[in-house]
Amino acid sequence: MHATNTLAEADRLMTLCNSCRYCEGLCAVFPAMEMRREFLDGDLNYLANLCHSCGACYADCQFSPPHEFNVNVPKVMAQARSESYEAYAWPQALAPMFRQNGLKISIVAAVSVAVFIAGFVAWRDPAVLFGTHAGNFYRLMPHNTMVAIFGGAFLYAIFAMAMGVRAFWKDIGEPAKTFTEGPSLWQAMKDASSLRYLDGGGVGCMNESERPTDNRRIYHHFTFYGFMLCFASTSVATIYHYGFGWQAPYPVFSLPVILGTIGGIGLLIGPVGLLIAKSHRDPAMMDTSRTGMDVAFLVMLFLTSLTGLALLILRDTAAMGMLLAIHLGVVFALFVTMPYGKFVHGIYRFLALVRYAKEKRMLEEGEAGTA
Ligand code: SF4
Ligand code: SF4
Q1: Hey, whose CA ends up nearest to atom 2 of ligand 2?
Q2: Which atom of ligand 1 is nearest to the CA of 30?
Q3: Ligand 2 pocket by Cβ (under 6 Å)
Q4: Treating both helix axes as pointing N-terminal to C-terminal, what angle do 41-50 and 143-171 enclose, rounded to 10 degrees?
């Protein structure tokens, strides 16, 4: 018995694939499946999060629809994955956000915060909101207030996602000490940073036209590394502020601005590329009920970058006040919706890769021991 119909269907497919094994060279899912004879809910959630949705096994399968066996691994894994995000969400009361229109929620949150900041500043002194301040953001909002509000939102997101990680790890039956296994973590980092299993077994992702391309992997890289560079920019600026007492605004050729600009450009190109790539995918192998969740996250990343870069370019003009309010509104909305949207896929997929690296290593060591 499984907790949901989706997991029951995933069990049926994995049992069938385990007899066939035609796709074992395509990705990590099939070798991980072959290490099992039966599939508990935790195993299926692990396999679902290990799947990168490249679509190769759907295109290659002789039993995919219209065959009566109706084998559609990418779609069922995508559905199981989405349902697992809800099952692991903290607090559970907010889990339905994964199914709701995430973009609408994010935009409403962003606009509300932006209007509140702009209104508050204008109420105290309109000249501050519409004045020029040589890029000094703290004329509108003191640094400590900014840190308290946005640091609080960020810490909330980290805590909520950490609770999700705990639930996932428990569900798949992994002990906490796996996190201390250097070789597994290192292998997972290499696989995640290169998106090794998004290559459809070497040919690329399958699309509507059944012509594989590497577009999704390329735009994922722009998005992921763009995000990491923006994060690095904020971290360096924090060290400058608290470690050296160097206050923003930083010069154009300073490290925080260079990192933020390159990262920001990546976060413009990546999300747009992924949205276009998504529109070319075959809907038959996707979980179309969760498209809103994917789109919301990509749009919010794009808007964060767009408003951040606009703020950098226009920071010496009278537009800075309004742009800062809008940018902060978007960043706040991004942070508070992060644990209930597509962002979590990167975390669970990385954890699944850690477990796979460990299982693979143990299998190889076992085989070497019996040889
Ligand atoms: S997806 Fe189809 S071809 Fe691939 S292992 Fe499963 S049953 Fe076999
Ligand atoms: S869709 Fe791609 S990653 Fe997912 S199981 Fe099939 S081949 Fe593996």
Answers
A1: 54
A2: 5
A3: 23, 26-27, 29, 51-57, 73-74, 77, 197
A4: 130
pLDDT for res 97? 86
Residue 369 is predicted with a pLDDT of: 72
Residue 273 CA to ligand 2 centre (angstroms) = 21
Q: Is the pLDDT of residue 44 over 90?
A: yes
Question: In which element (H, E) is residue 348 found?
Answer: helix 344-370
User: At CB < 8 A and 24+ separation, what contacts does 368-371 make?
Assistant: none
* Low-confidence winner among 11-15, 194-198, 230-234, 273-277 (lowest mean pLDDT): 194-198
Q: How many structural domains is the chain composed of?
A: 1
Q: What is the dihedral of CA 188, 192, 196, 197, to 10 degrees?
A: 90
Closest ligand 1 atom to residue 20 Cα is 8
The chain-wide mean pLDDT, for the chain, equals 93
Query: Measured in angstroms, how far is the CA atom of residue 224 from the centroid of ligand 2?
Result: 20
d(CA 67, CA 79) in angstroms, rounded, equals: 21
Atom of ligand 2 nearest to the CA of 56: 7
73 lines ligand 1 (CB under 6 A): yes
Q: How far is the CA of 21 from the centre of ligand 1 (A)?
A: 6
Query: Is pLDDT of 208 > 80?
Result: no
Closest CA to ligand 1's atom 3:
61
311 pLDDT tier (thresholds 50, 70, 90) = very high
CA of 23 to the centre of ligand 2 (A): 9
Q: How confident is the model at residue 305 (pLDDT cuts 50, 70, 90)?
A: very high
Q: 345 pLDDT band (50/70/90 cuts)?
A: very high
**If you average pLDDT over residues 155-184, what whole number do you get?**
96
Question: 226 is in which domain, residue-wise?
Answer: 5-370
Paired tokens of 32: 């991980």
Q: Is 61 in the pocket of ligand 1 (CB under 6 A)?
A: yes
Q: What gap in Å lies between CA 61 and CA 297, rounded to an integer?
A: 31
Buried b (16+ CB within 10 A) or exposed e, 223-257: bbbbbebbebbbebbeebbeeeeeebbbeeebebb
